[in-house]
Design goal:
The protein is an alpha/beta fold. It has seven helices and eight strands; from the N terminus they run H-H-H-E-E-E-H-E-H-E-E-H-E-E-H.
Length: 245
């Protein structure tokens, strides 16, 4: 297992850049899926094809057609979630490749990581993933892979209201960013209809928050490799933050 403090950031960056062409092509392919009645199936097939190239230990499709892939089998359950439609293209590209980076660099710890991608463009909410409530996959924490301009957005957590920067989920995100990029991140509060009640959530991702996928594409492409590295390093940082509680 790889302790959080021993992440080889240079190897992670190098490997991410080796996958740059594949990640960017995957992102472009998701943006190019036609927006007609068959778009959901097209997105599903393209995402599943990419997931099956990675060393995920389990792949599920729930009753709503969401794709879920697991890597690791530790005690701390973490989910990376990308919303449906072209709006979730950068998130899906980043989280799917995070699994490949984790495996190839041996970045395992006491976590079970679920990578979840909604394929319906209307599926912005985690409540639309039936397996979370009825399939035994309810995570301890969620990282929403959404366009945030590489800012860490703190979301609501059950009855607590917004998370604070002292929350272990937020601390893990801050540590991940500082370890990888050697700069302090921007951390803000942001309401969301995506989070599931009772599960603390943050958002982080490539591209500009609120912009259309097409308008945000150039910025998202510049951010994608950083986002993929962040998603890959985050699970062991989260475990480390939880152990320090």
């Amino acid at each position: 297992m790889t302790p959080a403090h021993a992440i080889d950031t240079q190897r992670l960056s190098t490997l991410a850049h080796e996958y740059e062409r594949e990640i960017l092509q995957f992102f472009r392919d998701l943006l190019a899926v036609p927006g007609d009645n068959g778009h959901s199936q097209g997105l599903f097939q393209r995402i599943r094809h990419e997931v099956e190239k990675a060393p995920y230990e389990e792949i599920r499709v729930d009753a709503a057609g969401n794709l879920l892939a697991r890597i690791g089998s530790g005690n701390h359950k973490v989910m990376l979630h990308a919303q449906g439609g072209t709006a979730g293209a950068s998130g899906a590209a980043g989280i799917v490749y995070a699994g490949r980076l984790i495996h190839e660099l041996g970045m395992y710890d006491d976590f079970t990581l679920w990578v979840a991608s909604s394929v319906d463009k209307e599926s912005r909410s985690l409540a639309r993933i039936p397996a979370l409530e009825r399939g035994g996959l309810r995570p301890d924490a969620v990282l929403l892979a959404q366009p945030t301009n590489l800012c860490i957005q703190m979301r609501e957590a059950a009855v607590e209201g917004f998370l604070s920067e002292s929350h272990p989920l937020v601390q893990a995100a801050i540590s991940t960013y500082e370890t990888l990029f050697e700069l302090p991140p921007m951390v803000i509060q942001s309401p969301s209809a995506t989070a599931l009640v009772g599960i603390p959530a943050i958002a982080f991702g490539a591209g500009e928050d609120g912009a259309s996928p097409q308008a945000a594409e150039p910025l998202a492409m510049r951010h994608l490799l950083k986002a993929a590295q962040f998603y890959a390093a985050f699970p062991i940082m989260y475990v480390d933050a939880m152990k320090r509680q």
